[in-house]
Design brief:
307 residues; mainly alpha; 0% strand; globular
Length: 307
């Protein structure tokens, strides 16, 4: 996949939920259309953390409760994100690992299947590539989190990953191992750089990155058609010496920054108190960016080994 449109949706909806978690400052009136009392929590959520839970629709319920019951309620630990159905880092990690596991299992199956029958490599490759690309946009633009589509996307990405990897490894032995090591190292490096603030993600950088990623996707689709027609010895523009290497490096840079955007989106979603279901969407975004980065490294090292 050449782009990850999910991060735009996550950022927009995180801002929506963030508005519910911000109470007006002292002396500041509540926004028009919002009553002053209770502002700062969305309708349907319970009272602030640490407050006793009263049955809805039962005003003055505490008056009919015994002192022991009241004391027991006040001694209860404040409800955390998990108890209130809010997004947590653990949720994102577990969903990401689950989706990544699906990708790896399907990729391993495709590797052995295509390796035994090289003639089916191209159909499996194209089905996985275009199928996952189409589903990525469907997932990004749907109004609700569609878990079955996200899982299907992981399956298609696994098909693409396995078919392209076994094909490249047969032509350029060892290139897959090099690409895997480079991908894992870049993932760790980007996380550390984003965490310490060396790489920053802003609204402006998101817009610029989004336009560049979409432009790169269009270029890849055009280049794919050119490669099928034999241009650049089957590589398209990527087969044109230093220019092809330069474009591959640009692809690696875009995919790497996509990870930073995903890290920032996860952080924003957690801070905004987004619903737990968004962990699937964020896990999907992270895995898609990781696969994109691997494919870019795979192509770059294959080009370098060809030269």
């Amino acid at each position: 996949m050449a782009t990850n449109p999910v991060f735009n949706r996550i950022d927009k909806e995180a801002q929506q939920y963030a508005g519910f978690n911000q109470a007006p400052q002292q002396g500041q009136a509540a926004p028009q259309g919002h009553p002053q009392q209770g502002y700062g929590a969305p309708q349907g959520y319970g009272p602030p953390q640490g407050q006793p839970q009263m049955p809805m629709g039962y005003p003055g319920a505490s008056e009919s409760m015994s002192p022991e019951q009241l004391e027991q309620m006040y001694r209860q630990a404040p409800a955390g994100p998990a108890e209130t159905g809010r997004l947590t880092l653990d949720d994102v990690v577990m969903k990401s690992l689950a989706l990544f596991g699906i990708v790896l299992v399907v990729a391993a199956g495709a590797w052995f299947f295509v390796g035994a029958q090289p003639e089916v490599a191209m159909p499996v490759w194209l089905l996985g590539m275009f199928g996952s690309l189409g589903l990525s946009f469907a997932i990004a633009f749907q109004k609700k989190v569609n878990v079955p589509l996200i899982v299907a996307h992981a399956v298609l990405q696994g098909m693409f990953l396995g078919a392209v990897s076994v094909t490249f490894n047969a032509m350029w032995p060892g290139v897959v191992t090099t690409a895997v090591v480079a991908t894992m190292g870049t993932f760790a490096g980007m996380f550390i750089a984003w965490k310490v603030g060396f790489i920053k993600v802003t609204s402006k950088s998101r817009r610029i990155f989004g336009m560049m990623a979409m432009g790169y996707l269009v270029f890849l689709l055009v280049n794919l058609g050119a490669s099928f027609m034999g241009f650049g010895d089957g590589w398209g523009v990527f087969g044109m010496g230093p220019l092809g290497i330069l474009i591959s490096v640009l692809g690696v840079a875009l995919a790497s920054y996509s990870l930073a955007v995903d890290f920032d989106s996860v952080d924003r979603g957690i801070q905004a108190g987004a619903p737990e279901k968004y962990s699937w969407l964020m896990g999907h975004g992270l895995v898609a960016s990781l696969v994109w980065l691997y494919i870019e490294f795979l192509r770059l090292f294959a080009i370098l080994q060809s030269d």
